[in-house]
Specification:
CATH architecture of the largest domain: Alpha Horseshoe
Strand content: under 5%
GO molecular function: identical protein binding
Protein name: Pilus assembly protein TadD
CATH superfamily of the largest domain: Tetratricopeptide repeat domain
InterPro entries: TPR-4, TPR-like_helical_dom_sf, TPR_rpt, UCP035836
Pfam families: TPR_16, TPR_19, TPR_4
Organism: Sinorhizobium alkalisoli
CATH class of the largest domain: Mainly Alpha
Number of domains: 2
Order of helices and strands: HHHHHHHHHHHHHHH
Shape: globular
């Protein structure tokens, strides 16, 4: 998963204890868009189609295919990274963590590996360990904006929103107008129910040339939670296959149909503007 979407796993957990079940934009095609970027090249098998176009069963089959390559050579860095990524995309977070533990043992100084290991820890609920791993991957003399953003996402999961937003802004200093970081920043404000500020950052993210569909789905959520349901559905349908668009819109509708929960969120948002 790329940094904007490390939120997906914990948004589902957060939903269990908050007024509204916040949409985890890893449904349908959105997870595929993320995974497409994360797949690395190397000695892994070629996939039959882009990850972004795969449905759930195809993602499972892809994970099995790449998993076989990993089993043949557990020290293969790219096979391990890709296998763990696909496992996370199919919800197998504990197994993804186990794979990344082995990859990290074999590549203990690889920053990309350590970053992916931290994300796997976060997805499996090991937040403090994930924070330590991501910090260990960072180097002061050559800071990595992706790691800054990943650290911010973990801090948000720990409820440390002020620190998280500082990390996002540091990432933006290194990589100005990066849509993934702007999206993470917007979702940070959404999680604290400041919907108007969330929309501002998410619109900025979606306007960037490199923005992917998952960024626009986050924007759709922020718009829908403010009661502009038709506009949210229009955004949610953009640049997806018909099947992916329908799945996302159906999920968006189900979340936004929780009127009592929406009213509580709206009141909280009004409090942020006073």
């Amino acid at each position: 998963m790329t940094t904007p979407h490390i939120f997906s796993a914990y948004l589902r957990r957060l939903a269990q204890g908050t007024a509204v079940a916040i949409l985890a934009i890893s449904v349908a095609g959105c997870a595929g868009q993320q995974g497409k970027k994360e797949l690395t090249t190397g000695s892994i098998p070629k996939l039959s189609k882009p990850v972004a176009a795969m449905n759930a069963s195809e993602l499972t089959a892809a994970a099995e295919n790449i998993g076989q390559a990993y089993e043949r050579n557990p020290k293969d860095r790219d096979a391990g990274l890709n296998y763990a990524n696909l496992l996370r995309m199919t919800g197998r977070n504990e197994q993804a963590l186990a794979v990344m533990q082995q990859v990290a043992i074999n590549h203990p100084t690889d920053r990309e590996v350590l970053g992916a290991y931290g994300k796997a820890q976060a997805a499996a609920g090991q937040l403090e360990q994930a924070l330590a791993t991501v910090k260990r991957a960072q180097t002061p003399d050559r800071p990595d904006w992706k790691l800054k953003s990943a650290e911010g996402a973990i801090l948000d999961q720990l409820g440390r929103s002020s620190e998280a937003r500082l990390r996002y802004r540091e990432a933006l200093d290194l990589q100005p107008n990066e849509p993934s970081v702007l999206s993470n920043l917007g979702m940070s404000y959404l999680l604290t129910k400041d919907l108007k500020t969330a929309e501002t950052y998410l619109r900025s993210a979606a306007a960037q040339p490199a923005a992917d569909s998952s960024v626009r789905q986050n924007l759709a959520l922020a718009v829908g939670l403010q009661g502009r349901f038709q506009e949210a559905e229009t955004i949610a349908r953009q640049e997806l296959t018909p099947q992916q668009a329908e799945a996302n819109v159906a999920y968006l509708r189900s979340m936004l149909s929780q009127k009592g929960a929406w009213n509580q969120l709206a009141k909280a948002d009004e409090g942020n503007t006073n």
